[in-house]
């Protein structure tokens, strides 16, 4: 079984990161079954690429990129160009697990967005990526990232109103 | 002021993430099973390829493809491969100085202002280009005369609304251009092959394959002998074989005994096909078996033993060392191995960092593309280099980098006869016409 110099195996990576990846898959897809499928498929691809990935890249960002691209599904099969980034140092910072305020109405509105627009929003507001990073992740131009995000936010803005008591209630779900 | 909506979005996404299901307890086993079944290939799986024929308008097509392919079987085949001798590529010379006749920089907009993407060169001056109506969505193919700066031969490329892979892998031959798309309806995948005459007109569907729940994509297409040939496979899996359909429409089918083969370039198909990720180990010889679709004649490469897989084009094979399982340093140091299929002219190039890590083929069956990673003023200043196996000369050009130091490199070469090598710059393309290098 492939092992890198920290003794980290593919198995230990999957075991330790599956829950976090599944959360990401869930906000990308909005559906628990789709999230599980997306994760499984992406891990199959990671498995095939593991020896290369542990040597060249950070497996976590690799698998997150695969998940995003696979979910949006629609892209010209690129063969001429592939982005190269400065390699991230290592590790992936888990965001705080504190319970944030959930707005079920907004969550429902997200479902109505085209996948690509939703993916751009998830990368920007859940993964905290810059537009440049989003462009590299999805293999699209920065201009496309901006226009997709703007269109998605416009759509949400047209239908969403902040609930007036949101700040006080803390709405436990 | 932070927008209320984006604040609510952050909070909602973060909160919803906590509602995600728990990973399946047997996740690892499930992944491993799927991984293994893909490595074995599709033979044991239940996916049934249903071939349907659509259309059949009577486009007249020349009987032979436009490329007069040299026959790599002609030189006497050696039973045993010759040795690999060390070679050091010389200091690179700027591309435009080394091969001025082959290099030209063109704006990335057509006369009239529309953006385009170069596909390939049709001859010395005519470039086939694609324009896009949206996100990587080709809506038109055009012939752009680089000397006359005139655009002709508009081909409309329709994209059905249920397409999940937009028109891809445009391939030229016999006066036509062909491409493929994938559609998904009611959970079923349908792969379609489309074509149009280069003179202009409307794209026409020539074949459709219902793949059920299969995950296959088309690997490469080629046109020759009045037919379109293509191979398919799952990402990371081995190719399932080569399919064919007459350009003029008519019955589509599998090329007999082509299991494991994939399209290289008319008239050549090769086996075994490499997976998309370029996995491989010492002893593997991707496309080591080459078959001529015109004659059915097959030949096997005679190659020296190297510590990694060989990846063969038509005449030349390229090899890299299989990456070690243990990390040895920030960069993988590996020589590049080169040898002709007939076992002659073997060499080991040192001081060359192969990138991308996927072993591609030689561009135009003659040039090895790689990146030179250097830094200037503390920032990455990468170059793309082309090593000519015929003359040993190296031309290079700096790649544009983004503010964060990231950059794009051309992907691995998959089409061994494509004469065009494109380098993207900010508002222009650098076109290298490899056929003009003597």
Structure description:
- The complex is a heterodimer of chains A (about 170) and B (about 450).
- Chain A has about 170 residues and is mostly helical.
- Chain A folds into 2 domains: about 10-80; about 95-165, Orthogonal Bundle (Arc Repressor Mutant, subunit A).
- In chain A, about 60% of the residues lie in helices and about 0% in strands.
- In chain A, α6 packs across α7 (about 140-160).
- The longest helix of chain B is centred in the first third of the chain and has 14 residues, at about 5-15.
- Chain B is mostly beta strands and about 450 residues long.
- In chain B, a hairpin with a 2-residue loop joins β28 and β29.
- Chain B has helices spanning about 5-15, 25-40, 95-100, and strands at about 50-55, 85, 95, 105, 115-120, 125-135, 135-145, 150-155, 165-175, 175-185, 190-195, 200, 205-210, 215-225, 225-235, 240-245, 255, 260-265, 270, 285, 290, 300, 310, 315-320, 335-340, 345-350, 365-370, 375, 380, 385-390, 395-400, 405-410, 420-425, 430-435.
- In chain B, about 45% of the residues are buried.
- In chain B, the strands form 8 sheets. Chain B has a 6-stranded mixed sheet with strand order 2-26-25-24-23-20, with no helix packed on it. Chain B has a 5-stranded antiparallel sheet with strand order 1-13-11-10-9, with no helix packed on it.
- Chain B contains 3 helices and 34 strands.
- Classes of the chains: A mainly alpha (about 170), B mainly beta (about 450).
- Chains A and B meet through α1, α2, β1, α4 and α5 of A and α1, α2, β9 and β32 of B.
- Chain A: Keywords: DNA-binding, Sigma factor, Transcription, Transcription regulation.
- Chain A: It comes from Thermomonospora curvata (strain ATCC 19995 / DSM 43183 / JCM 3096 / KCTC 9072 / NBRC 15933 / NCIMB 10081 / Henssen B9).
- Chain A: Belongs to the sigma-70 factor family. ECF subfamily.
């Amino acid at each position: 079984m492939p092992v890198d110099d920290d003794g980290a195996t593919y198995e230990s990576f999957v075991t330790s990161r599956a829950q976090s990846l599944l959360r990401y898959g869930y906000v990308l897809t909005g559906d628990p079954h789709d999230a599980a499928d997306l994760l499984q498929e992406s891990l199959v691809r990671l498995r095939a690429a593991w020896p290369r990935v542990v040597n060249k890249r950070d497996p976590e960002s690799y698998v997150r990129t695969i998940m995003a691209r696979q979910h949006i599904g629609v892209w010209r099969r690129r063969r001429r160009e592939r982005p190269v980034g400065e390699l991230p140092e290592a590790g992936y910072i888990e965001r705080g697990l504190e319970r944030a305020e959930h707005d079920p109405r907004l969550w429902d509105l997200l479902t109505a967005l085209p996948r690509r627009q939703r993916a751009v929003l998830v990368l920007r507001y859940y993964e905290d990526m810059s537009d440049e990073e989003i462009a590299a992740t999805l293999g699209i131009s920065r201009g496309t990232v901006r226009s997709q995000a703007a269109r998605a936010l416009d759509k949400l803005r047209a239908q969403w109103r902040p609930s007036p008591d949101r700040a006080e209630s803390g709405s436990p779900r | 002021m932070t927008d209320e909506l984006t604040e609510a979005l952050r909070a909602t996404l973060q909160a919803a993430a906590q509602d995600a299901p728990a990973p399946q307890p047997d996740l690892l086993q499930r992944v491993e099973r799927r991984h293994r079944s893909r490595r074995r290939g599709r033979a044991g799986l239940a996916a049934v390829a249903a071939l349907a024929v659509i259309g059949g308008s009577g486009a007249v097509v020349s009987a032979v493809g436009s490329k007069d392919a040299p026959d790599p079987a002609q030189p006497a085949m050696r039973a045993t491969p010759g040795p690999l001798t060390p070679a050091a590529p010389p200091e690179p010379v700027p591309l435009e100085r080394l091969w001025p006749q082959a290099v030209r920089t063109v704006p990335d907009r057509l006369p009239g202002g529309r953006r385009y993407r170069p596909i390939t060169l049709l001859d010395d001056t005519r470039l086939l280009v694609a324009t896009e109506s949206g996100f990587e969505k080709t809506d038109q193919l055009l012939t752009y005369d680089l000397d006359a700066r005139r655009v002709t031969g508009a081909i409309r490329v329709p994209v059905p609304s249920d397409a999940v892979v937009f028109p891809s892998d445009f391939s030229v031959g016999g006066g036509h251009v062909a491409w493929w798309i994938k559609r998904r309806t009611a959970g079923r995948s349908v792969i379609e092959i489309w074509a149009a005459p280069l003179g202009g007109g409307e794209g026409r569907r020539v074949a459709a394959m219902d793949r059920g729940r299969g995950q296959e994509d088309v690997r490469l297409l080629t046109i020759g002998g009045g037919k379109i040939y293509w191979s398919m496979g799952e990402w990371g899996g081995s190719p399932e074989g080569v399919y064919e359909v007459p350009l003029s429409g008519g019955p589509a089918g599998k090329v007999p005994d082509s299991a494991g083969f994939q399209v290289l370039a008319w008239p050549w198909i090769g086996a075994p096909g490499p997976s998309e990720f370029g996995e491989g180990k010492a002893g593997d010889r991707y496309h080591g078996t080459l078959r001529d679709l015109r004659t059915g004649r097959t030949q096997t490469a005679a190659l020296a033993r190297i510590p990694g897989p060989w990846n063969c084009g038509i005449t030349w094979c390229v090899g890299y060392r299989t990456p070690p399982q243990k990390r040895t340093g920030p960069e993988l140091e590996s020589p590049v191995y080169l040898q002709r299929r007939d076992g002659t002219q073997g060499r080991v190039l040192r001081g060359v960092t192969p990138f991308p890590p996927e072993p591609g083929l030689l561009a135009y069956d003659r040039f090895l593309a790689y990146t030179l990673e250097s830094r200037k003023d503390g920032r990455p200043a990468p170059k793309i280099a082309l090593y000519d196996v015929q003359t040993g000369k190296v031309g290079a050009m700096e790649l544009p980098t983004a503010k964060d130091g990231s950059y794009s490199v051309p992907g691995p070469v998959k089409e061994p006869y494509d004469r065009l090598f494109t380098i993207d710059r900010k508002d222009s393309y650098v076109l290298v016409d490899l056929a003009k290098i003597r």
